């Protein structure tokens, strides 16, 4: 018996040890393949952009300023003057403030809607009506009510971002297992304990999903919102480049907007995936 166990240990353990390295190697290979495909797709888009501008520029010399090479040559001047960094910081600050206000209003409202059916029935038509109104439609009202500067921008960003957070939070509350709620009530848990130990872990993943969707909406609304009498931000820089007929700089700013939006979405996705992995281990 001892010899059989020794043989099984001698032959089984190395095989088990080989599984993890092979799995890790497979994961790395899959990630490398996905990255390569993503880079190939981006390269194809840039190539199509370059070809399109080259064809149009045969009939209009002005079109050459919208090409990728002209935009790339503009970056050193924008970065060297610290102009670009100042506008990026201003835009990111507005995104952060708008998202914070949206979460401050959206999470409690979504929790109440998901927790009380009567409240959902009463508020659902009004919320769906407001959600379908474009945030940009409120621009004149925001300026007349709040003046020029950051306040109307914050209002528009908050109005744009609050809806996905409300909907995701309400869905998370409604999908909490009723047995967990019954268990907490049977243990005489207080409202604070129920909120912290049952509801918050149950809806956190849904809230993060709403936040990720809200960030995408915020980044789209940000550029036109920053055309409301502010003197900083990427939206303001777009207008400034247009007024100065600096079209190559304008295209460079467009590329920066796309890159920053991609980075924000990647960061939000990483936070969500990390939280989901922690929940699976728990």
UniProtKB/TrEMBL annotation:
Places the protein is found: Cell membrane
Main location: membrane
Keyword Mitochondrion: no
Top-level taxon in the UniProt lineage: Bacteria
Organism of origin: Paraburkholderia tropica
Record's protein name: NitT/TauT family transport system permease protein
Source organism phylogeny: Bacteria, Pseudomonadati, Pseudomonadota, Betaproteobacteria, Burkholderiales
Membrane topology type: Multi-pass membrane protein
One Pfam family linked to the record: BPD_transp_1
InterPro entries associated with the record: MetI-like, MetI-like_sf
Similarity comment text for this entry: Belongs to the binding-protein-dependent transport system permease family.
Region described as Disordered: spans on this chain: 1-22
Comp. bias (Polar residues): 1-11
Keyword entries, A-Z: Cell membrane, Membrane, Transmembrane, Transmembrane helix, Transport
Residues of the ABC transmembrane type-1 domain: 88-268
Record field: transmembrane: 32-52, 95-114, 126-147, 153-173, 194-225, 245-264
């Amino acid at each position: 018996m001892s010899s059989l166990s020794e043989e099984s240990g001698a032959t089984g353990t190395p095989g088990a040890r080989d599984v993890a390295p092979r799995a890790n190697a497979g994961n790395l290979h899959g990630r490398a393949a996905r990255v390569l495909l993503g880079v190939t797709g981006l390269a194809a888009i840039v190539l199509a952009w370059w070809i399109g501008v080259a064809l149009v520029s045969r009939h209009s010399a002005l079109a050459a300023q919208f090409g990728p090479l002209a935009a790339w040559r503009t970056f050193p001047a924008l970065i060297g003057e610290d102009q670009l960094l100042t506008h990026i910081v201003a835009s990111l600050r507005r995104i952060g403030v708008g998202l914070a206000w949206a979460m401050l209003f959206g999470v409690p409202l979504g929790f109440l809607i998901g927790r009380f059916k009567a409240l959902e029935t009463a508020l659902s038509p009004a919320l769906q009506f407001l959600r379908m109104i474009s945030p940009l439609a409120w621009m004149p009202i925001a300026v007349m009510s709040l003046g020029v500067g950051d306040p109307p921008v914050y209002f528009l960003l908050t109005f744009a971002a609050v809806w996905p957070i409300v909907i995701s939070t309400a869905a998370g509350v409604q999908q909490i297992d009723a047995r967990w709620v019954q268990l907490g009530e049977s243990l005489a848990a207080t409202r604070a304990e129920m909120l912290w130990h049952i509801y918050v872990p149950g809806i956190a993943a849904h809230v993060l999903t709403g936040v990720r969707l809200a960030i995408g909406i915020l980044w789209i609304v940000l550029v036109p919102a920053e055309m409301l009498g502010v003197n900083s931000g990427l939206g303001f820089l777009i207008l400034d480049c247009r007024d100065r007929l600096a079209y190559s700089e304008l295209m460079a700013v467009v590329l920066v907007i796309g890159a920053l939006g991609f980075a924000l979405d990647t960061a939000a996705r990483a936070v969500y995936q990390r939280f989901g992995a922690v929940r699976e281990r728990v």
